[in-house]
Amino acid sequence: MPTIYVTDEVKRMLLEYASKLQIMLGRRVNFNDAIRHLLLQQRKRDHKLLLEACKPIPGVEEALKELYEERRKDYERVKRRFGL
User: Fold this and answer.
1) Which residues span the domain enclosing 11?
2) Radius of gyration (C-alpha) of the chain in whole angstroms
3) pLDDT tens digits for range 16-64
4) How far are the Cα atoms of 15, 20, 21, 68 from residue 60, in angstroms, in the given order?
5) Nearest-CA neighbor of 24 among 11, 43, 10, 37?
6) Would you tell me the crossing angle of helices 31-43 and 8-25 to the nearest 10 degrees?
7) Is residue 80 domain-resident?
8) How far is CA 66 from the centre of its chain?
9) Are residues 3 and 39 in the same domain?
10) CB atoms inside a 10 Å sphere around CB 76
């Protein structure tokens, strides 16, 4: 089994997580189990949260229009300054 090195702070945090997981599962849990659980939890996706994040926000059209206008002005400044 390979060895990994972590800081004392990370080891303490992992120990706390493993103890909470042990209480939740009602069985002994080692660091491998805790890390595996963390990685599997990270993989799960909250589809409602994803849909909420992808929903258009109000005023985005105005902001995009302003962004394009400012970019056009930047190109005009560069043209005037460098003669491109």
Assistant:
1) 1-44
2) 25
3) 999 999 999 999 999 999 999 999 887 777 778 778 888 888 888 899 9
4) 45, 43, 43, 12
5) 37
6) 80
7) yes
8) 28
9) yes
10) 10
Both tokens assigned to 3: 């060895």
Q: For residue 47, what are the CA distances in angstroms to 6, 50, 53, 54, 67?
A: 33, 5, 10, 11, 30
CA–CA distance, 82 with 72 (Å, rounded to integer):
15
Cβ within 8 Å of residue 4, ≥6 positions away: none
What are the tokens at 37? 């659980």
Quote the pTM value.
0.52
Residue type present at position 51: L
Burial of 35 by CB count in 10 Å (0-12 exposed, 13-18 middle, 19+ buried)?
middle
User: Looking at the domain assignment, is residue 49 inside a domain?
Assistant: no
Helical H segments across 1-84, by residue range = 8-25, 31-43, 47-54, 60-82
